[in-house]
Design brief:
The complex is a heterotrimer of chains A (366), B (504) and C (363).
Chain A: H1 13-19, H2 23-39, E1 47-50, E2 56-59, H3 61-86, H4 93-109, H5 122-145, H6 151-169, H7 196-214, H8 217-226, H9 228-233, H10 238-264, H11 276-286, H12 298-317, H13 325-340, H14 342-365
Helix pairs in contact in A: 2-12, 3-7, 3-8, 3-10, 3-11, 3-12, 4-5, 4-6, 4-10, 5-6, 5-10, 8-10, 11-12, 11-13
Chain B: E1 5-16, E2 19-30, E3 34-38, H1 45-53, E4 60-65, H2 77-82, E5 85-88, H3 100-105, H4 116-129, H5 145-158, E6 163-167, H6 175-190, E7 194-198, H7 202-208, E8 211-216, E9 219-225, H8 231-239, H9 243-248, E10 265-272, E11 279-283, E12 288-292, H10 299-307, E13 312-319, E14 322-324, H11 329-334, E15 337-340, H12 344-348, H13 355-367, H14 375-388, H15 405-418, E16 423-427, H16 435-450, E17 454-458, H17 462-468, E18 471-476, E19 479-485, H18 491-499
Parallel strand pairs in B: 3-7, 3-8, 5-6, 6-7, 12-17, 12-18, 15-16, 16-17
Antiparallel strand pairs in B: 1-2, 1-4, 8-9, 10-11, 10-13, 13-14, 18-19
Helix pairs in contact in B: 8-18, 13-14, 13-15, 14-15
Chain C: H1 3-8, H2 13-16, H3 19-42, H4 49-74, H5 82-99, H6 104-128, H7 133-151, E1 156-157, H8 161-168, E2 170-179, E3 185-191, H9 192-210, H10 212-222, H11 224-229, H12 234-260, E4 262-263, H13 271-281, H14 293-312, H15 318-362
Antiparallel strand pairs in C: 1-4, 2-3
Helix pairs in contact in C: 3-14, 4-9, 4-10, 4-12, 4-13, 4-14, 5-6, 5-7, 5-12, 5-13, 6-7, 6-12, 9-10, 9-12, 10-12, 13-14, 13-15, 14-15
The chains are: A mainly alpha (366), B alpha/beta (504), C mainly alpha (363).
Chain lengths: 366, 504, 363
């Protein structure tokens, strides 16, 4: 995972850990784990089974979390960068995933809705989808960086049109990709018991880590997000950097699209990656990153994504219907943003001071 | 309260984290007078105004206003309006999307409804009486900045107030407009309203004011009748040097030997979008020169134009005799120019990033996107400059915003020194930092110059400039008005040139 | 250069217009031109007045929601919870009327109450705790959507008699009717929701134009800092805008419910986006301070009209709707952005010529 410079200087090891922002998702994860442990320890059971293809596969709630959380984690990478540089979020990722998935199926199936064999190599389909997604990312990026429209509103356009475009690409048909070969990306590679989406996610993390280590994208996007004026005076081109982060998010969207359509070999335009934008934004926030941009911690965002999936799975386990999930998550979001709001923090710290000082005076009196 | 006084401030204190902005300041405004509040940067005059208008809340002290029993509390702009203090700010605090008339009346009319006809009629009368030729129904954003400023003044003038504060309202106005304003102001004076006038333009002060209060470093220097304080003395009071003292200061700097070589940097007719008049400028290898003038005279805008920080609108630039194009900061950086901006917080630091990242930022941009320094290399650079400049920080990981002002400034300086520039521009590098650091920076400038770097130095403190610069370009009203070298480099000549002695 | 001189310079009509009026005019012009084109090229039903009234019938709820959205956007915020709130209201009212045996008055109270509750909570979080409006209302939207399915999962039609009677009430408009297939003259009609919507548009127009509170919304959206300095209670104004938007979401929700006469978790999906799009097309600036209810009305109608036209020319697949809305939204956003940029440039230029002239005088 990415190694970003930690915020803190000095202090004991313990206080340094305490101040690290990755502690926030870790604490949330810990709470969820404890809760599940008390409620039903079988939550943590992992078994090795054979699936209908005769492959050994791992199964269990934890495996389902790392499996289904992968798309979220991959999107969180791009969303973190976009948030850092443009001080806002892209709400069109769900719709863009639909487009990317649709493009992949279109290339794989050609004009036939359920062909006997794949009409094009998977890699070609993915590359075409990647180019398309990055173009849509660039479209958002141009609106944000050059036309200076607030990110959430600029991406509203694609949010509105995305699923329609996705349907249009395949003429509103639901093509079914044939064969087991394509199912691998959303299922299991024969012989490997770990779900492929998680492996793809790991690959993405490694690429991200390399990107952060071997390029200056981290430093540049953070500088632009924290202080655009300074960034410009230091020779950066803030517009170009913002655009670049949106294009990177586009690539993440393409990968997510591949996994999503591979899971079911087909697509449902109105359901695929539904509400994923909310979860992705939540992952970034849960990672302790400010939604108003600037400094970010990529590892924390990714962990945040898995924590969200953990929460989702836990809620499912308690028989919460999937349609009601948003209500619970919304409460979590509101609690998170209220607690991290500067106004609230200031009031809390003042309150703490008061309590402390009144305690002191009480002690003095005693 | 004394007889005849409108407003009295007694023993005002205001502290911001790390800065004592006001210490025991007294101020008295009498009925019907125009009172100038003068002082250089950081003297505390804007803090004092903000305490009066409820933007900041004073730590200690009392405010008395005629017609109010005892000390009054001013906790918000609304409360200030209620006790009869009306203000025109330097920045235009109007709503650009509303019409001129609305901007004059919003937030102060009574009742629930808006009577457009009456509002427009009254605005038209008011604008007419002030000689502002603008339609009341026009949208404010479509007016020029000067007209917007006049509208702000019209609003303040029309309000039922006993104290009118004009906080540098004239910086975006030209002379004919100012004349009109003053005419109106004399009428106000007759009505017994007191006016506090903050400005950097000495001409205006001597034209209209009755009394001057001078602040320096957050403390009261004194209150003077306008007749008893000639221009030169006013400047010396603001800068904190007595005339006699200043005559004694020897120019310790060796004069720069002009060997007739090609200048490192040369500009002709340079002009930017920020309203300075076109100027010529050059600097040679190892030379230290400076722009001087009061705040708002255009000295910062000049160096910003050199660096390409503002949009350059005209002029030709040569580096080492070869013509180059500098339209954006990156061009300047490639040509070996470094620029330490005036407003550290707004333009200099990247607050949330660490000291290390702040130090390597410029060099990192120069080396390119695909060649980031390794953590170890970055740390090595950071450690080197932390040691060299004696930056006090817990570690290279500390976020720069938690450092003191002086140390932040050193980090920015380190950032630029790391790029090994040919030509270094320092705009107010010593503002708001402690004396020790100030001396360090001055010494450093001289050392760098002796190693062959060219440095342009801007400071509000003239003795600092005298100690470091061998040539001074003097600015007044956004125009270069003189160039001083050699024997001319004395406090007296500088102040005479700044004050515009030649005009009176 | 003196002010006189400056003003004497000739200026185009456009420059003298306020941003609000300029953008509203564009919208109205776009609507009229589209309608005329539809009449000329498509004829079919566009010549019948009932076509126009049907547009109103279909979009009465959206007009109300968009009006609330416009108000919030004028103060510089955004509220994307309105669609979810509408769905929640439809479901709650439907359950109340059908499963609980409630009456229509009670249902109206429920609708308004839910809308207000959302408005108050969201307004408080945004105005007084200074949390980003987008995040707060996004959470509000998801909360409302989730709650809708918690209240009741399946879509169902409401059969409460009083309600059905109310739903089917038609207000006939004499003289504008048309002759139907069988050669019988039929009066043109609108639903009650349309009357409500038009009333709300009229009231809000008056509030925004002729009351101090209304102008305060504009001031806060134009420049928060300045508004504070001008003596306006910025927090209260912001809070009020969300409360009113919530109230309108309540009313709009009920009008929507009256139109569809059923409860379903998938009701009003994407309504928030349509409301935002209507406001933007109607000339409301995202940056705040600029906008007009009349513009929003025409914005909503333009949106409805273009969907109708798209259907009429044979592009009846569902996706064309989404794409046309997005395309219109995109065009109008870019136009806004260009207008702002040009205004800025024009001002800068003015400043520069002043300086230059000063310099000339100086020499």
């Amino acid at each position: 995972m990415s190694k970003l410079p930690d915020v803190n200087g000095g202090g004991s090891v313990l206080s340094r850990v305490m101040r690290n922002q990755i502690l926030i998702p870790l604490a949330a994860l810990f709470l969820l784990a404890i809760f599940n442990l008390i409620a039903d320890p079988s939550f943590f059971a992992i078994t090795l089974k054979e699936n209908n293809m005769g492959n050994p596969v791992l199964s269990g709630q934890l495996i389902s979390i790392i499996d289904n959380g992968s798309e979220l984690a991959i999107l969180a990478i791009g969303m973190t960068l976009v948030t850092a540089s443009s001080k806002g979020q892209d709400i069109s990722v769900g719709a863009a995933v639909a487009i990317s998935g649709s493009v992949i199926l279109r290339v794989l199936c050609g004009t036939d809705n359920s062909p006997e064999t794949l009409q094009a190599p998977i890699i070609v389909a993915f590359l075409v989808a990647a180019v398309a997604s990055m173009l849509f990312g660039a479209f958002n990026g141009v609106l944000v960086a050059y036309f200076r429209i607030q990110p959430m509103v600029a991406t509203l356009i694609l949010f509105t049109a995305g699923r329609s475009i996705a349907a249009w690409i395949n003429n509103n048909q639901l093509p079914i990709a044939p064969g087991e070969e394509f199912k691998v990306f959303g299922g299991f590679i024969p012989g490997i018991p770990i779900p492929t989406p998680f492996l793809i996610a790991i690959l993405c993390f490694i690429v991200t880590w390399a990107m952060l280590k071997f390029t200056n994208i981290g430093l540049y996007s953070q500088s632009v997000g924290i202080n655009e004026k300074t960034a410009r005076l230091n020779g950066l081109n803030p517009e170009l950097i913002k655009l670049a982060t949106y294009v990177i998010l586009g690539l993440c969207v393409a990968v997510t699209g591949l996994i999503k359509v591979s899971r079911i070999s087909t697509i449902n335009y109105s359901v695929i990656a539904k509400d994923i934008e909310m979860d992705t934004i939540l992952a970034v926030a849960l990672g302790g990153n400010s939604l108003s941009g600037g400094k970010f911690n990529m590892a924390a965002s990714i962990l945040g994504a898995y924590v969200i999936q953990f929460l989702t799975t836990t809620l499912y386990k308690f028989k919460v219907p999937s349609t009601a999930l948003p209500a619970y998550k919304a409460v979590v979001v509101i609690v998170l943003v209220v607690l991290s709001a500067p106004v609230v923090r200031e009031k809390l710290s003042r309150l703490m001071k008061k309590i402390r000082s009144s305690k002191n005076t009480a002690e003095n009196h005693a | 309260m004394q007889q005849g006084s409108l407003l009295e401030l007694r023993g005002i204190y205001k502290t911001f984290p790390g800065v004592k902005a006001l210490q025991n300041v007294d101020f008295t405004l009498r009925e019907g007078e125009i009172h100038a509040l003068m002082g250089e940067n950081g003297a505390g005059k804007s803090t004092l105004i903000k305490v009066l208008t409820g933007v900041h809340i004073k730590d200690e002290g009392d405010i008395f206003i005629k017609g109010h029993e005892g000390a009054v509390q001013i906790r918000s702009p609304q409360e200030a309006q209620r006790v009869g203090i009306s203000t025109v700010y330097q920045e235009i605090t109007l709503c650009p999307n509303l019409s001129v008339a609305e901007n004059i009346f919003i937030g102060r009319s009574k009742g629930v409804g808006v009577k457009w006809k009456e509002m427009n009629r009254r605005s038209a009368e008011l604008l007419d009486s002030l000689g502002i030729a603008v339609k009341p129904t026009q949208q404010l954003a479509s007016c020029s900045i000067a007209v917007q400023q006049m509208v702000a003044i019209a609003r303040a003038v029309d309000m039922e107030c006993s104290v009118l504060i004009l906080d540098e309202p004239t910086s975006s106005l030209d002379e004919s407009e100012v004349a009109k304003l003053f005419k109106r102001r004399r009428q106000r004076k007759e009505r017994g309203v007191g006016i506090i006038f903050v400005t950097h333009f000495l001409d205006q002060v001597y034209e209209v004011c009755d009394r001057i209060t001078v602040l320096r470093d957050g403390q009261l220097v004194g209150e003077y009748e306008i007749e008893s304080l000639p221009r030169l003395q006013l400047v010396s009071k603001m800068l904190g040097k007595e005339l006699d003292d200043m005559a004694d200061i020897k120019n310790e700097t060796k004069t720069f030997n002009d060997d007739g070589s090609t200048p490192v940097y040369e500009a002709q007719n340079l002009c930017s979008s920020e309203g300075i008049k076109p100027f010529d400028f050059h600097i040679k290898r190892g030379e230290v020169n400076g722009f001087t003038g009061l705040l708002g005279s255009g000295r910062s805008e000049c160096v910003r134009a050199i660096y390409g920080a503002d949009t350059v609108t005209s002029g030709s630039v040569k580096m080492d005799g070869k013509p180059v194009k500098i339209t954006k900061p990156k061009d300047a950086m490639k040509n070996g120019i470094a620029y330490l901006p005036e407003d550290r917080k707004r333009d200099g630091i990247v607050g949330d990033l660490s000291v290390r990242e702040n130090i390597i930022l410029a060099l990192q941009v120069k080396t390119g996107f695909f060649r980031p320094f390794s953590r170890a290399k970055a740390n090595e650079y950071a450690e080197k400059y932390i040691k060299l400049l004696d930056i006090k920080t817990a570690s290279t990981n500390t976020p720069i915003k938690s450092l003191s002002g002086g140390n932040q400034q050193k980090v920015i300086l380190a950032r630029w020194l790391l790029t090994d520039p040919k030509y270094l521009i320092l705009d107010e590098p010593t503002r708001g930092i402690d004396v020790g650091t100030k001396v360090d920076i001055q010494k450093l400038v001289l050392k760098l110059a002796s190693e062959g770097m060219s440095v342009t130095f801007i400071s509000s403190e003239t003795d600092e400039m005298l100690r470091t610069c061998s040539r001074l370009i003097v600015m007044r009203d956004r125009k270069v008005v003189g160039e001083l070298t050699g024997d001319q480099l004395t406090q007296n000549t500088i102040m005479e040139t700044i004050a515009g002695g030649d005009r009176k | 250069m003196s002010v006189n001189n400056l003003n004497g310079r000739r200026r185009g009509l456009l420059r003298n217009m306020t941003d609000t009026n300029l953008l509203t005019s564009i919208t109205i012009a776009v609507f009229v031109i589209m309608y005329i084109c539809a009449i000329i090229f498509l004829q079919k039903g566009f010549l019948k007045p009932q076509m126009l009234f049907n547009l109103l019938n279909e979009n009465a709820a959206l007009i109300i929601l968009a009006s609330g959205m416009t108000l919030v956007m004028i103060t510089g915020g955004i509220d994307i919870s309105v669609g979810g709130v509408t769905a929640l209201i439809s479901m709650c009212c439907a359950v109340f009327l059908d499963k609980q045996g409630g009456n229509v008055i009670g249902a109206i109270f429920i609708a308004v109450g839910i809308g207000l509750a959302f408005g108050i909570v969201q307004g408080f979080l945004i105005a007084y705790l200074e949390i980003q409006p987008f995040i707060v209302t996004l959470a509000g939207m998801f909360f409302a959507r989730g709650m809708t399915t918690i209240v009741y999962k399946e879509p169902f039609n409401v059969e409460n008699e009083a309600f059905v009677a109310l739903k089917d009430t038609r207000v006939n408009i004499p003289f504008l009717g048309s002759v139907n297939k069988n050669g019988v003259y039929v009066d043109a009609y609108v639903e009650i929701g349309v009357i409500t919507a038009l009333l709300i548009v009229a009231v809000l127009f008056v509030v925004l134009k002729w009351t101090k509170t209304g102008r305060n919304f504009y001031a806060v959206g134009g420049n928060r800092q300045s508004a504070l300095m001008l003596g306006i209670n910025v927090k209260k104004t912001t809070f009020m805008s969300y409360v009113i938007c919530g109230l309108l979401a309540g009313i709009g929700g009920f009008v929507y419910f009256m139109h569809v006469g059923s409860g379903s978790p998938s009701h009003a999906s994407g309504a928030e986006m349509n409301a935002i799009a209507s406001s933007i097309i109607g000339g409301t600036m995202l940056t705040g301070g600029v906008g007009n209810i009349v513009g929003t009305f025409f914005g909503t109608m333009s949106l409805a009209l273009i969907q109708n036209i798209v259907r009429s020319v044979g592009l009846d697949q569902a996706w064309w709707t989404g794409i046309t809305i997005a395309a219109m939204l995109c065009i109008f956003l870019v136009v806004q952005s260009i207008i702002i940029a040009r205004r800025k440039k024009a001002n800068n230029k003015q400043k520069q010529t002043e300086v230059k002239e000063n310099a000339d005088v100086g020499q």
